[in-house]
Amino acid sequence: MKLRITVIAVLLAAVPAVGYAQSSSRIDERQADQQRRIQEGVKSGQLTKKEAEQLRQDHARIQAMIDKARADGRITREERERIEAAQDRESERIRRERRDDQTAKGKGHDKGKGYAKGHDKHQDKASAHIDQRQADQQRRIDEGVKSGQLTKKEAERLRNEQARIQKMEDKARADGKLTREERERIERAQNQQSQAISRERQDKQVAK
Fold first, then answer.
1. pLDDT in tens, 84-95
2. Statement to judge: residues 94 and 190 lie in one domain
3. Are residue 112 and residue 127 in the same domain, yes or no?
4. Does residue 18 sit in the same domain as residue 99?
5. Domain range holding 160?
6. Do 40 and 99 fall into the same domain?
7. Which of 88, 119, 150 is the endpoint of a domain?
8. Which end of the chain is less crowded, N or C, counting CB atoms within 10 A of the terminal residue's CB?
9. Of 119, 144, 178, at which residue does a domain stop?
10. Is the pTM of this model over 0.90?
11. Quick one: 20 and 61 in the same domain?
């Protein structure tokens, strides 16, 4: 009888942990998805440089809110609701900015399809590869914070570098295309960032 009570108590204790993991994962997935939507808006010309910068600043503010909530090792119900409300507002703002009449210079777009007119398939493939790596490396940073492998200072440094690469990418795309030299320069920066993420996550410094 005592064994049965103990097992039930253990199972009940695990329920909040499962709920926390699910809500935390959902928050991270929404962050990655909204980052992808901003990048797609830049690539298609639906977002101007100013619109994209404002959306990224708001996205970074929400990420800082998430990191602060996780600082004590858990996200409370109130913190989760506040973060999700901010993500809801960000999602609506991304949708609104991508559908308004403002477009990046030299990038007319079809609002139904979300592609720049006269887009080049090779350019699209190279651009998509860069965007995928950006999203993947952002995910790796978020995972490092969540697991405690990255300290607050390490994560901040990596996110600053991530933002620098993103600005490099946006500047290269300002004329509607990526040259071979621009693509190679961005990919070198992404390679260095990937190594930095691996190094910081595997060192002996961990979040308190």
1. 999 999 999 999
2. no
3. no
4. yes
5. 121-208
6. yes
7. 119
8. N
9. 119
10. no
11. yes
Which residues touch 174 (CB under 8 Å, ≥6 apart)?
49, 104, 105
Give the closest residue to 109 by CA, choosing from 36, 47, 175: 47
Q: Are residues 1 and 101 in the same domain?
A: yes
> 98 and 193 share a domain?
no
Return the HEC string of the chain: CHHHHHHHHHHHHHHHHHHHHHHHHHHHHHHHHHHHHHHHHHHHCCCCHHHHHHHHHHHHHHHHHHHHHHCCCCCCHHHHHHHHHHHHHHHHHHHHHHHCCCCCCCCCEECCCCEECCCCHHHHHHHHHHHHHHHHHHHHHHHHHHHCCCCHHHHHHHHHHHHHHHHHHHHHHCCCCCCHHHHHHHHHHHHHHHHHHHHHHHCCCCCC
Question: Which of 134, 93, 116, 132 has the alpha carbon at shortest distance from 44?
Answer: 116
Q: How far is CA 172 from CA 51, 120, 175, 184, 194, in A?
A: 17, 16, 7, 11, 20
